[in-house]
Specification:
Helix content is 7%, strand content 59%. It contains 7 helices and 33 strands. The protein has a 22-stranded antiparallel barrel. The chain has a 5-stranded mixed sheet with strand order 3-8-9-6-7. A hairpin with an 8-residue loop joins β14 and β15.
């Protein structure tokens, strides 16, 4: 397998990194791993650009990849502290860790972001907008975040309007674990272990998180806690030199204290309500790696169950969203750097709540993308056709361009279309409308980039624009006085993203990301809710020669509005975190941090609290 990776890296004109390269580390012997690490540069690999593993310099799309080492250096279970290192990414959250957390990329709404875990779609079909709640995704389970910014329904189909996030489940060879305790009686632990030989890898990862929390309601005093247990497994078996069997399995269960809207004021206030969430998802598939042909076929499923209970334990609202999918992705490498990527899939989704009858729908899609990689030039163009049981067909087209200049610089550009199928709740619930059309978008970006974000001098500047139409909103009509979903809105988001990293001195690296995002409702001319126009993160890390690590993260956000009418303002804020760690030998590390050093009082959602100053400490071990 090391020979395969070496040959791939040596052929600069070949576009795709074989899928083995992405999952190779668990399968290499110690001698092979030493060879790869010492002799070959390790490419940064993305799967969000074209659905298969691709070296990041061979795509013109804007992609950020955050690996496990960086996740650990940031510390803690809250993934937003890691994700905020991505240009153009902002978020909103209802309270503390575990509260509903929506991620916005380039001003797109949270339910216009396609989220995958190990390639499996994990959004809840029973949620009104169908978006993914990052409050249920904790950092101990994640091995990598692969984040594409911009519409890409050509490859991914529905939901890929704002972008795509693929989260890889953490894998280890040997055993590694973390135990942490801190403010608000917060206890976090995770453990990952794996065994491998030349042809087999089996890994398990588990995570436990518990906190007393703080009042989700800004005017409340009763603390709202959160606890979650999660477990995941990954397996690879090389049946032959070119055929691999793979599987991923994940399960989690959490309990969140929430504040509600009690009578007589029906305003957000302290209540003793809770929300219980149970999720499981996974896949099983085969991958074929030939000299010219790569194929990856899989069956996957995802299921989310939610129960909202009052203080007496009575279920007030219950829902279950379920999806199953079969898919095939492939790439055929022709002569002269020319290749064609292709794929097809069929998905079944269903949902039920204690207020709505069970409902289901289906969607099928197929795509083809022509690619040409010659030296430092990479060009892709493709199209897709989807057919939905309710609204019929939708087409998507896209292309990208990347060209290297000199040794380190490259220019890149992409044009993509996106669409989002109406959710089952929007189509078939008590407020549903079977005449809904899919939301649609067209995005374009142009950027220049130097180096890699993880080393040396790095610089990236990107300008972007996305126009969206047929956006689904909630309206009241004479024949539907209690409300109905309708295609009513248009939106536009445009701006710039900047990222830079500097190796100031030996062991000292300073980096930062900044975004100017002008996101507006094209019907009213008002700003989209909870989309700050200016935001960014500055972060620095210093590593001594004797095991001491120091770091800092400063999140800066300008003001925004909490509602579509722009009548409720959210002030801007700055939040500083400080981090430290000390290595004890090669297998132990003590670490700690102070979050929100200056105890800044700020809001990302009106009426909801945010965490104040908190200190945390822990130990990390590896064997």
């Amino acid at each position: 397998m090391a020979d395969i990776i070496a040959a791939q890296d040596a052929e600069a004109s070949q576009e795709a990194v074989p899928e083995q390269a992405q999952n190779a580390v668990p399968l290499l012997t110690d001698e092979q791993r030493a060879f790869v690490t010492s002799e070959l540069p390790i490419p940064i690999v993305t799967v969000t650009a074209n659905g298969l593993s691709t070296a990041i310099e061979n795509t013109g799309q804007a992609v950020t990849v955050i690996e496990r080492d960086e996740i650990e250096s940031v510390q803690g279970a809250d993934v937003t502290r890691v994700l905020q290192r991505t240009p153009g990414l902002s978020f909103s959250r209802n309270g503390g860790v575990g509260g509903f957390t929506g991620v916005n990329i380039r001003g797109a709404s949270a339910d216009q972001l396609l989220v995958l875990v190990d390639g499996v779609r994990v959004a809840d079909p029973a949620a009104p907008g169908g978006g993914f709640d990052f409050g249920n995704q904790l950092g101990g389970m994640a091995g990598k975040f692969d984040i594409l910014r911009g519409s890409n329904s050509t490859i991914w189909g529905s939901e890929a309007i704002g972008g795509v996030v693929d989260i890889s489940t953490r894998t280890e060879t040997g055993m590694a674990g973390t135990l942490e305790y801190g403010a608000r009686d917060t206890l976090s632990a995770n453990l990952a272990a794996g065994v491998s030989d030349d042809r087999v890898y089996v890994g398990l990862v588990g995570s436990w998180f518990q906190t007393d929390g703080f009042s989700a309601a800004a005017n409340g005093t009763e603390a709202d806690g959160f606890e979650q247990f999660a477990i995941g497994g990954t397996g690879f078996l090389e049946l032959t030199d070119s055929l691999e069997l793979f599987t991923h399995l994940n399960w989690s269960e959490g309990k969140l204290d929430i504040d509600g809207f009690p009578p007589p004021a029906y305003a957000l206030a302290d209540t003793l309500e809770t929300q219980e969430t149970r999720r499981h998802w996974g896949d099983l598939g085969l991958a074929y790696y030939g000299n010219d042909l790569t194929l990856r076929a899989a069956y996957s499923l995802a299921d989310t169950q939610r129960d909202n209970l009052d203080e007496a334990g009575t279920v007030g609202f219950a829902s279950e969203g379920h999806s199953e999918r079969i898919q095939l992705r492939g790439e055929y490498r022709l002569l002269g750097g020319l290749s064609i990527a292709f794929g097809g899939e069929h998905e079944w989704t269903d949902f039920q709540t204690n207020f709505d009858a069970p409902a289901e729908t289906e969607i099928s899609g197929a795509y083809a993308q022509l690619g040409w990689v010659l030296g430092k030039l990479a060009v892709h163009v493709g199209g897709r056709l989807d057919d939905h049981e309710q609204f019929g067909s939708a087409t998507s087209f896209g292309g990208d361009f990347s060209y290297g200049i000199g040794n380190d610089w490259r220019v890149r550009a992409s044009l993509g279309e996106g669409f989002k199928a109406p959710t089952l709740y929007q189509l078939l619930s008590a407020y549903g409308n079977t005449d809904l059309e899919p939301e649609q978008s067209t995005s374009v970006d142009l950027g220049i980039e130097r180096g890699r974000r993880d080393k040396g001098l790095y610089f990236s500047l990107t300008g972007f624009r996305r126009d969206s139409e047929n956006l689904i909103g909630f309206a009241f009509t004479p024949d539907r006085p209690f409300g109905v979903y309708q295609n009513t809105a248009r939106a536009r988001a445009q701006g710039i993203e900047a990222e830079a990293g500097f190796q100031i001195a030996s062991g000292l690296r300073v980096s930062g990301v900044y975004a100017l995002v002008d996101a507006e409702d094209r019907e009213t001319g008002l700003d989209l809710a909870r989309r700050p126009k200016h935001f960014g993160t500055l972060f620095a890390d210093w590593q001594s020669g004797f095991g001491l690590h120091l770091g800092a993260d400063l999140r800066i956000s300008g003001p925004s509005f909490d509602n579509a009418a722009n009548s409720v303002k959210l002030d801007g804020y700055e939040v500083l975190d400080l981090r430290a760690a000390f290595d004890i030998g090669t297998s132990l590390q003590l670490f700690g941090r102070i979050e929100n050093v200056f105890d800044t009082d700020y809001r990302v959602v009106s009426g909801y609290n945010t965490p104040g100053r908190g200190a945390f400490a822990g130990i990390r071990a590896r064997m």
